[in-house]
Automatic annotation (TrEMBL):
Domain DUF1846: 5-337, 342-494
Top-rank lineage group of the source organism: Bacteria
Database matches in InterPro entries: DUF1846, DUF1846_C, DUF1846_N
Protein name: UPF0371 protein IDM48_00795
Pfam families: DUF1846, DUF1846_C
Entry-linked NCBIfam families: PRK13663.1
Similarity field: Belongs to the UPF0371 family.
HAMAP family: UPF0371
Amino acid sequence: MVNNIGFDREKYIETQSQHIQERREELGGKLYLEMGGKLFDDMHASRVLPGFTPDNKIAMLEKIRDEVEILICINAKDLERHKMRADLGISYEDDVLRLVDVFRDRGFLVEHVVLTQMEDDDRLAVAFKERLERLGMKVSRHRVIPGYPTNMDLIVSEEGLGRNEFAETTRDLVVVTAPGPGSGKLATALSQVYHENKRGTKAGYAKFETFPIWNLPLEHPVNLAYEAATVDLNDANVIDHFHLSAYGESTVNYNRDVEAFPLLKTLLERVTGTTPYQSPTDMGVNMAGNCITDDAACRHASEQEIIRRYFKTLVDEARDGLDSTQSDRAAVVLAKAGLKAEDRVVIEPARAREEETSLPAAAIELPDGKIITGRTTDLLGCSSAMLLNALKHLAGISDESHLLSVESIEPIQKLKTVHLGSQNPRLHTDEVLIALSVSAAANEEAQRALEQLKNLRGCDVHTTTILGSVDEGIFRNLGVLVTSDPKFQRKSLYQKR
């Protein structure tokens, strides 16, 4: 079933902003808050905590917007590697610009970008720095510090953090964020705290990481879903033994934070003269676990996310010709959660439909629990056929009714194959929706079907073939949650995205 609400958004906004304020008061002075995950498009959180909206964190910060300044950092090496945000299909470079625009549109102060681990021969980073400056942004350069994070004497010195350029911020709460993991958020925050204290300004550090949720059990599906989402990093949830030792309370953190804590604690003590933190959990300010209202709903949503992540690793490996390292890790998480890949109700109907027709098929679970399938035909791909069938069901239109006539489809096919050089005459989902929109002007049933698009958000879909980029993008824009079997429709070495 489509997920029931299991998370109190309003409570989260209220309690989380209040807790950050309390942490500021406890530390005194200026607070650099490292924010992990996505600030305003946290799709993962919205999938595993139904009721958590993608903009929940930024909505929370809006409560204290006049006291907040945002500092964006990006690793120069990620520019050289042309790193992409897979969920949006854009480069980290473009995402920095997008982040600035979105933050400013919502009334936040954002003037600085920090380029981390930047060296003189990082040509793309130098070019990006110049571009940002032409756009009116202030850019600070941070260098590679040999022996980071273990060489304490060098790190906390004028030859270490002291060589990093300082970003002059004007607000007392500075949120440090980035396009993705590995961008240098922690190092940026520590560098700023070092320079602030050298200048006589009391400044401290805290961390806001939504996952894993510290006050949920270690192998709660919400926390396991985080493991599944980070198989590329090989993260694992662990008990924070520092917290257990200090307070006798069992809490959950992830392995990298626990492993790095002794070093980080020592660094903070050297940079600020003291640290109030006895554990990695102490550093966090996350209140998400206190805002779960329906544990069963969040468990179900997270279990489905674990399965989706497993299929994603299989598809990524098939697309890129990779070995099974990541899917093996995802399979371990699947086993920890006590799940099978087939514990997703749309998989078997899609595969059964393919077996019937010997061609790719797709299945969707609608909000009322109804499973609708689609098969590949001479006119339509399986995703397009399933989409039309689903819209007909939601609009109460008979199966026998044709929303698109053969006469309306054939000219589009001719355009694709004769004039645009495509080898595939079948209509993709975007072409079907355009044709449906045109038909809606004169066809009342087509209009009714179009009006049902909003009811597809949050629905689960499975296809028996790897989707092309067009269908993938349309489903993403519709808010449909898709998995695919890791095989291509055509057997060839080169597969067009």
